[in-house]
Amino acid sequence: MTKIFETPLYAYTRSPDQDAHTPVRHPVVIIGAGPVGLAAAIDLGQQDIPVVVLDDNDKVSFGSRAICFAKRPLEILDRLGCGDPMVEKGVTWNVGKVFFGERETYTFNLLPEEGHKRPAFINLQQYYLEEYLVARVREFQAEGKPIDLRGRNKVSAIGQHDDHVTLEIDTPEGAYNIEADWLIACDGAGSPTRRMLGLDFVGRVFEDNFLIADVVMEADFPTERWFWFDPPFNRGQSALLHKQPDGVWRIDLQLGWDIDKEREKQPENVIPRLKAMLGEDVEFEIEWVSIYTFQCRRMDKFRHGRTIFAGDAAHQVSPFGARGANSGLQDVDNLCWKLKLVIDGAAPESLLDTYDDERVHGADENILNSSRSTDFITPKSEVSRTFRDAVLDLAEHHEFARPLVNSGRLSVPCTYHHSALNTADDTTLPDRTRPGVPACDAPIAKGWLLDHLDSRFRLLAIGCDAPEAIEESGVRVETLSIAPGENRDFDDRYLGEKSAAIYLIRPDQHIAARWTDYDETAVRAAIRRATGQV
Predict the structure, then answer these.
(1) Which of 111, 211, 237, 516 is deepest in the core (most CB within 10 A)?
(2) Which helix (H) or strand (E) holds 76?
């Protein structure tokens, strides 16, 4: 298993840019070859936007890091061509259990209905995701797609200009300079890009520490998320258990605030804690150990001229709720189609400001939920602890109290209810497919709905006539026609009590507008609005 950490996946090779007499200009440069940066490169590259990815590393991340990937990001990865290997390798789960002391308080199911291609969650080590993304980049490169992945290329200086960005890059063979029309910073929570540009990253640091241990063992725990409040093996604290592939289990143990982090990571201190949880007779091997502190922070703005921030470089949340990598993939999903339209001249540059509006909203939603989870998991006063414990006692026997239990509000798709790109909705079509919401997957005669929505605008025509395609202001929109009655789940989600509907769906599969019959004037106006032209 160590081999994946040790093998360079994008080893350093000399670029022609290093021998150029003047800095070469590129349409898009991405800093960071983690999940967010690689996903952005794939999303742009598959749309024929030339992109250069720079990273001072050349291997996958060490340790499992992010492990929980939610349904919506899996659907995004489907669009990028990486969903199948993720689900095939990952551990699928929908069910979670909450314990208080030694008692099971209640069980929840995150995907209680049928008719979805992807599960509520899978667990998969981040290094596998990075490996699959790099493999997808290589596939595209073999097809001639314009993606250039450069390992051991460390950005050491950045200059902002009105119409481009300049970058100085250090390599094993010396420094060189390039320019970018657009720069996407995906370089993590400690973002050197953010620091070099002197930008803010404000928020809240919670006074607590958690031990993460990836443990290899044979165990008969079910494939579920188990969370303990005040467990007998970690009194006064909390614990979390998740199954990963390859016989690896993720264990999180709350340690408290005033600790020696380096000392707590030593095997002689970690092993007794794990034995107290698992039992003295259980044989295990520690694969990776880390200690983290909850932080909920974000930049004031994600777009700064020609530099755009995504993922942990733009926002950071506590790990409970699986909102980190999942949110970063939604950043990419939101940004790349807008950047393509701007680069192609089919939309004004101001369209990129809606990335800022929509994803700052997403970050605030995640930070709010993450902060509430952290306050519930780690009460800071006796009054708060008494309230929490009373809620846990009630939840064991009374369903009304269960929504109050917060062991980490798990990642859900972000909805852009108030986006300037939405067309006002005056229909009585189902609420779950209103403008701003990501299109809900459903079975159709041809397979699954989302598999037929690619990285372009689409009209979804249900039970009514619409042209095969319509072009408005340089944007071509093709129609996907579906007859009512093909599948009950689809009809319930997109028609409700109506017999016909038209949906305008963005390239990131969010619904921009809908009607109960086809009106060309209204559709054209909605396309202009959804591309920032009104």
Answers:
(1) 211
(2) helix 71-80
